[in-house]
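Possible regression after last week's pipeline update?

I re-ran a chain I had predicted before the update to compare outputs. Posting the input and the new output here so someone can diff against the archived version. Not blocking, just want to make sure nothing changed silently.
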Amino acid sequence: MKRIHLMGICGTGMASLAGLLSSKGFHITGSDQNVYPPMSDFLESLHIPVLSGYRPENLHPSPDLVIVGNVITRQNPEAVELSRLKLPYLSLPQALGHFAMKGKQSIVISGTHGKTTTSSLASWVLEKAGLDPGFMIGGIPLNFHQNFKSGHGPYFVVEGDEYDTAFFDKGPKFLHYRPWVVILTSIEFDHADIYRDLDHVLASFRKLIDLIPDTGLLIANTDDPRIANELGRARCPVWTYGLSGQPMWGIREIFFDDGSTHLRIAREGREFSALKTPLYGRHNISNLLSTVALASFLALPQDALSQAVASFKSVKRRQEILGEKRGILVVDDFAHHPTAVCETVRAVKERFSERRLVAVFEPRSNSSRRKVFQERYADSFEAADLVMIPEPPLMQKVPPEERFSSRQLIRDLQKKGIAASYFETTDALLNGLLDQAHAGDITLFMSNGGFDNLPGRFLKSL
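New output (post-update):
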């Protein structure tokens, strides 16, 4: 087998799989209709050609294997041609298990929020401990400058996504990863396009917990009551962590000084370590705490943990500072779920409390374009000084009775006394930003897509 074609290659997981397979010597091609940075730049840097659009001819000459991303429908022109040609194919999780995870102990980072940052930090801790981990992450860790690595060590860190696997396998991806250790950060209703309700989401996470062998470990965030209620079903040991209550792993003290967050971490009420990190925000400190527990379980040296935490550079598009021009700081983030938006806005405001915070949000995900979170978003921007929201893209794919309304959210925010403006297009939003932004502002962009490269265009325009 020499040539592998990936359908939907610009998805974060698919792009990292493409890079991993390329590093193993396979000739990789791919196709996608949503080609935008950072994944398009990432694939270009690896010299992996990306065909724009899905066409039957993309499978000619025939590859030896096709990997089908979960954005591909049964009616997709390439999927139809794949069936006609009777070519061998795998889903992303199947391919990852076959090509990368064999013979390794799997560390699965799961939960509605925090997977990418936690996976990146866990991988960096293992790297600094000299364990040469393999990993595949749904974002690009700035310490590695790529989101995949084969690794020669015994561990493989994988971001365990609860989204469905493929059109021919509607179960969640993380059920394919043979978990040995699972970090479970949070459970909330999301992915309204595939999950009916919260109970449906919980059913998937219960299956994941059931897969952990009795020789493994569940590291669970008990700040989330939904997680706390599920711990009794685990047949493996359970280590709890959290910022409240009495978890096994907790925080004794936290303060911010000299551009860093300083922590005193306790295990079972006794001081375990003092750490310094550039991360900030309660959600990020919680993610860090889970990684400290993992490091302890793996008996990693304390100095390796301290060095890794202090030198961790986070992930592209996770509170990533793009630059500062004319006294305006530009930050890009992937937040899209109401909880993630709320935590991100709050964290940025606490970190830069002396600045006016302009929050620019694109409701682009399959859930945020639906009205299921309409009311919750109105509570997500309370720490912002000014909110700007465009008309959501791709609304034609959502039934009219299910559609989210940006105009309604703006009205709801204004009723709460929050300055907020609606824009019909991203171009109009850019002009509004340039008109209203002034020195001393921090402008926080949030979207799980390319956002028409609005953060970069705004910075360049400044």
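Follow-up from reviewer: compared with the archived run. The first strand starts at residue 3 and ends at 7. Marking as no regression found.
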